Amino acid sequence: MGFLCASIPEEYGGGGGxxxxxxxxxxxxxxxxxxxxxxxxxxxxxxxxxxxxxTEEQKRRWLPKMALGxxxxxxxxxxxxxxxxxxxxxxxxxxxGEHYVINGSKTFITNGFHADLVFLVARTDPEAKGARxxxxxxxxxDGLQGYRKGRVLEKLGNKGSDTAELFFDDVKVPLGNLLGxxxxxxxxxxxxxxxxxRLYIAMNAVAQMERALMLTVDYVKNRKVFxxxxxxxxxxRFKLAECATKATIARVFLDHCLVKCLNDxxxxxxxxxxxxWSTQQCNEIVxxxxxxxxxxxxxxxxxxxxxxxxxxxxxxxxxxxxxxxEIIARDLF
Length: 333
Description:
single chain; alpha+beta; Butyryl-CoA Dehydrogenase, subunit A, domain 2; Butyryl-CoA Dehydrogenase, subunit A, domain 3; 4-stranded antiparallel sheet; 3-stranded mixed sheet; 9 strands; 46% helix
């Protein structure tokens, strides 16, 4: 349908659009509560690491198949002891002849179970401290010895998403699968792409706010309490007026950040603001909307109940909101 890799140039099989085209597609998927396959990770994140940092051979080898859906992409950063703190990554990819030998494990990997291409963040220089010594290695998983997919993790929400654990036991990957041409550039590559990634998270939150508001307005128009429609009660009207205001502010700020991103002007602190504020407001709005559904809001047959569970991860993934505030604070002082 053309929904994959919409912002990737046509010469690599993509749609030839911009970040704005991706945002529209991802927003409508979020608004429709479609989350089983993370197009955001596949098309918005993984494909763009490849576009920005891959060699010409790598781009022509993998991007057309990603655009067709023949390959599913995932990015593997988080580890059991390294979540928001990427500098704590322990997984190693050490040179041995013409290969990298990879050992380690990853967790919370979106698209992990179905991934054909895993963009693995690993330590290629074990002597380097902190952020230094990290590289991104492209792991082609089909029939790969030593590569194991763990269980699909049982999450609070987003039940359809194949969030998985991945294990690497003496996995051999050709040296040519290093993303780009230089080792130990992984952290810089990650930092350069994170503002756009956090914008995607903000986008998802804004779309969910708007959907929750729409569902709840429809519900209170039809639900009667003590002979009146819920929509006629002042508490209902005031609560939804507050939610509508917050959602509108979030949409305007998101669009402002999107324009800056299209002009290569979106920096880390601004993206952090968009990410933490929108995900926090999304949780608060969905909570208010569930309350206005009364007992029905607690029943999983109603979309608002599933949304309540789904949006809770927003303040956690993509860097916790506490980390976002630290990024903003560092820019202030």
